[in-house]
TrEMBL record:
SMART domains: DnaJ. It comes from the Bacteria. It comes from Undibacter mobilis. Residues 11-23 have a biased composition (Basic and acidic residues). This is Molecular chaperone DnaJ. InterPro entries: DnaJ_domain (IPR001623), J_dom_sf (IPR036869). Residues 141-198 form the J domain. CDD domains: DnaJ. Residues 1-28 are annotated as: Disordered. Pfam families: DnaJ.
């Protein structure tokens, strides 16, 4: 067996060498990384600055460059910090204008979330919000067609429907078919409200 002290000496030498290397020049700016920065990466079209990265993180950054382009610096940093903890979402879609600047990022579906950053839950939530808005618009139009407030009860909707059909029916207008379009609108509106339990 070798003299133990010589083994310890050889172990001790290595970290010293590494530390000297790392102190030689700027450090990688990737959060948590202590490697020497050997590569420059442009921050993006809205910034003339550069990130200083080690080779590994310059590669990581370049791979995701299109994703980062147009993001504010702090958003990029937030993403990188997030990368260290397994991409738990730290911000949601629609909360920052910068993240929506790039076409596709603000859109729904897979394309809007190329890195799975927001998770299925957030995406489903966003989709549900849009669907809710579409339904609300349809409901509002249907109520308008019946000249009712959106707060009208199903009983009021029914009563108004019967009244409007009577008034716009060609039979009630001496066979005049000029009110037919309006009648069709009324019927469609009522059918819609009935189908969603509001008529
Ligand atoms: Zn690095």
């Amino acid at each position: 067996m070798k003299n133990p002290s010589s083994i310890f000496d050889s172990i001790r030498v290595k970290p010293d060498k590494d530390r000297r290397l790392k102190n030689d020049g700027p450090a990688c700016q990737w959060p948590g990384c202590k490697e020497k920065a050997t590569n420059k990466a442009p921050k993006g079209p809205n910034s003339s600055g550069y990130w200083q990265y080690c080779l590994k993180h310059a590669r990581d950054y370049n791979q995701n460059y299109n994703f980062f382009a147009g993001m504010a610096d702090d958003a990029v940093l937030a993403y990188q910090k997030d990368a260290l903890t397994g991409h738990r979402p730290t911000w949601k879609m629609g909360t920052g204008k910068k993240t929506r600047a790039k076409p596709g990022l603000g859109a729904l579906g897979g394309e809007g979330d190329p890195f799975g950053l927001f998770g299925d839950g957030a995406r489903a939530e966003q989709k549900a919000k849009v669907e809710t808005r579409v339904i609300r618009n349809a409901e509002r139009k249907a109520f308008e067609a019946l000249s009712l407030e959106v707060s009208a009860t199903p009983a009021q909707v029914s009563a108004r429907y019967k009244d409007l059909v009577k008034r716009h029916h060609p039979d009630a207008n001496g066979g005049d078919r000029s009110t037919e379009d309006r009648l069709i609108e009324i019927i469609q509106a009522y059918k819609y409200l009935k189908s969603v339990g509001m008529g």
